[in-house]
Amino acid sequence: MPREALTKPGKLITLSISIHRLKTVFFKAVFLFAAFMLLAFSRADYGDTIVVGSIGEPRTLVPILASDSSSGTICGMIFNGLLKYDKDLHLTGDLAESWSVSDDGLEIIFYLRKGVMWHDGEPFTAKDVKFTYERLIDSGIRTPYAGDFIMVKDFQVIDEHTVKVVYGEPFSPGLSSWTMNIMPEHLLKSEDLNNTSFSRMPVGTGPYIFKSWQTGEKIELVSNHDYFEGRPYIGRYIYRVIPDQATLFLELRAEGVDFSSLTPLQFKRQTQSKFFEKNFRKFHYPSFGYTYMGYNLKDPRFRDMRVRQAINYAVDKDEIVRGVLLELGRPATGPFIPESWAYNKDIKPARFDPDRAHQLLKEAGWSDKDGDGILEKDGGKFSFTVITNQGNEQRRMTAEIIQRRLKGVGIDMKIKIIEWSTFVSEFIDKRRFDAVLLGWGLSLDPDMYDIWHSSKTKEGEFNFVGYSNSEVDRLLLEGRRTFDRDERTRVYHRVHEILYEEQPYLFLYVPDSLPIAHRRFKGIEQGIGGIGYNFIKWHVPKDEQKYRR
Amino acid sequence: MIKYIFRRLISMVPLLFGITIITFTVIHIAPGKPTDMETQFNPKVSLEARDRIAKLYGLDKPLHVQYADWLRRMARFDFGVSFVDSRPVMKKISERIPVTLGINFVSIILILLIGVPIGISSAVRENTFYDRAMTVFVFIGFAMPTIWLSLILMDLVGVRWGILPVSGLKSLEFERLGLLEKIMDVSRHLVLPVFVSAFAGLAGISRYMRTNMVQVLRQNYIRTARAKGLSEREVIYKHALKNALLPIVTILGLSVPGLIGGSVIFESIFSIPGMGRLFYESVMSRDYPVIMGVLVIGAVLTLLGNLLADVSYAAVDPRIKLE
Question: Do A256 and A375 fall within a single domain?
Fold first, then answer.
């Protein structure tokens, strides 16, 4: 039993005994009862295994090279960053005990936790942080994360447990970049990170220790008894790779998998049986991402803001959330997670209003002169093609719903579905599209410089719709330069407002994450950001444990 | 014969060379880049970072230089390292081959054991109800979508009855089992995949067998054998079967490359880490070294399989001489 769990109820007992007034006898009893309950419930057993089922397999377990979500999940179990996000999505210390930002925002000092050990028994020190930083900015290494770290002008090791990071100009997203997992210097200093056995045999500081990896089958981790936040209760973590969604579901049904994520259809329709009610617990909360239809703003039809606004009125986002997500999600109004402080809650989504759409299109000069149901202007019909990537059913269905709604206001939309790699390199990067249906995954810092700044429109950059607004440009820079939360809130609320007004994207929806976990796992708590944050506190009572070893 | 084999082997070299040039060119000019997958449209991944990654892979060089580099490595039997996880291509392929080879081998044996008798018996009872019923049966196997059949079987046998594992190759506690239990464990996992792949392959062999047998049974020497008063059993199994089996030998030779080919569909459904999935995944992520590795090995096996078919045909049929 963990020490923490014992001391808290103990205090309650002494407190309740010290109260002697008659009137409080009742309360005393209640207190005692509560104390016992707390004691009973906080008694967590060690042991058992969680089998996580996933469609994807990690590509590498070198954290600074890991860019896919499977690699990220496993690295997150094995490694720690200097900082992490807590239950409420606030930055908090991880390997750093605390940190301070200088008044001018140019210097961040991290005070590292003492006594942390790598899984091989070597102590964790400032040298490891320096090493990780140096590899991140090393141009010979295939890391996709260099961007935030080249902003660092100087990196100083002050002593074994203190590091100072100096930026050339204030860079607030830099703080969240230090959630990057730290790698052990002593094991990697003479290794070529692009090509090292470490990528399949990682050693970290995290709650779980890497044990084995059978390619295409599973990865096995065991709990780190000396973890600095306390030994995790669940003794073993197995990540099973099951590439087919239907098989994954059957494995859940056969209880061969304890934890996985569901599709909306599985969530709503296929897991309503008694069996699932009895054996599994489902969760849903907004995911960190949104789906949108982006316009090619070089296209004269879409350059007219009224046309974009008209489409916003013509498309019923609630209908999409109902039809595609089965209500497991919500309409989006802008490029932030609805839970984020950056999200401007004053922005009300436009109601579905085809008449208003008609009117706006008319103002923009579009009208149906030949009576075929499609609008014309200057002799050209309003007909365009939206492209999206193959393999994403939700996007395909969304496109079909939009297609039908746009037809209702006289716009002919065609849908083209293209294999991912071709889609990116031939269509997005080269700007060969009228409109594109895509999603963005979001990091927790609201900085979106790369997506919306007018300088980011070169081939391969992310402002591929070609958006340009001098106020947004200025605000984005301002948002990066200040650490002040109120100031940043003001900035991003305004950006949100402008983007919703100008509609460079038709913001569609924020889908929910839909994890499912076996009922024997207790202690799962849902925070704003989801359920993973307290994984080390998940536990299984002894008599319900399934895998004993 | 030895001379013939040697000559064929020599002539394979330019052929193989041509194959690699064509495949290399085709996969490189196909749209898409390896860096698209790696960076997955992540706004934290800058353009500079993507260019840098492309450069580290050597993708910024002209195509003929890249091919020359690849060929130079190939000459030393070095297939290079995967773009995806930086592991040697040979290693990635060799850890996948045993599973696929094993499944395909067992299922070919099964197909022969069931398909050949079906073919023979159908030919003997040509145009009877039995013959038609067998035709329908094997074509059901051929036409039924693998996905559907697999899922139905998994649901029935794995979930509802719970007598076989749903998917995968080994149980979670595999490492702690004894040798015998390990063999049992893997066999239990392979029952459904082998069944599905054998059922689908039954039609081919049994139809070939039937057609050959029907033709052979019309030959004069069969009539002679019957006229001699041999029992029907002897006529069929001694005189007819030997001749009818000859084309099957050729088909077996040609199926050699298929042995390591694997199938994306059933390997994905049963989550078996085989060659089919490796190839599919590497194509989707434009992992050029792995794609090339698999294709080269496939090409070599195809050429060897053809040679094997010719040679074994000559070996079993004294009428054929290879010069």
Answer: no
